[in-house]
Amino acid sequence: MDLGLNGKSVIVTAASKGLGKATALAFAKEGAHVLLASRTQKSIEASAEEIKRITGNNHVRGIVCDVKKVNDIKNLVQTAIEWNGTVDVCINNTGGPPAGDFEKFDDGDWQDAFESILLSVIRLVREVTPYMKKQQFGRIVTITSSSVKQSLDHLLLSNTFRPAIVGLSKTLAQEFAADNIFINTVGPGTIKTDRIIQLNEKRSAETGESVDDIFSNIANTIPAGRLGEPADFARPIVFLASEANSYVTGQTLLVDGGAVKAL
């Protein structure tokens, strides 16, 4: 299937590693012009160069952007415009907020999570939609969490703000569908990223349980029988952000191997 992404202008935030990087790689494989954003210059430039080497696509760049800073978001979008003339696809991604229960967090923690998870999406959508409306095409996908369907233990901030993104996206999908701007959210289950590997290596060192046994026990809780790979997660995003997706908007997709049982 031709996804129609060759030459499309794509922004991916928090793309120096993990799911953001895997998503940027998947777009680059389709021939898109991909602008990767992250807070750290060294890591984002290294990721961009790695993706170029893997794909042979030289239309890949990295840029420093802290999504909590409105001027960084404006600069990110302006850079994409100067480079490619427009923005066709915007992938919103942020790192997860700190774990903890209610009594752990003060107002500063709540404000920081709000700005990082929710306000950053609002600001980025505000910047890209005028260009998408002008060309009567746009695809926006926000990476969320399985917490949008089922609350996760000790992840209060994620349980609060990730579902808010679903409400925002569902509403915006109604507003922008007539302009051929489709807006969806995608939440990961347990995906075997470097961070998950590192966390389980740490757990192994603390408990004495082997890393293989830890992963095997996790896999046994997933109906698909295994953890997801980053590419498993990236592929549905690429479809939702493509011309091939001509009728799906306002939806929430969990890529979790069937782990979440909520309706």
From TrEMBL:
Entry keyword Plastid: no
GO molecular function annotation: oxidoreductase activity
Entry keywords, A to Z: Oxidoreductase
Pfam family, one: adh_short_C2
Keyword Protease: no
GO biological process: bile acid metabolic process
PANTHER family assigned: 3-OXOACYL-(ACYL-CARRIER-PROTEIN) REDUCTASE, NADPH-DEPENDENT REDUCTASE BACG
Similarity section: Belongs to the short-chain dehydrogenases/reductases (SDR) family.
Name recorded for this polypeptide: 3-oxoacyl-[acyl-carrier protein] reductase
Source organism of the structure: Saliterribacillus persicus
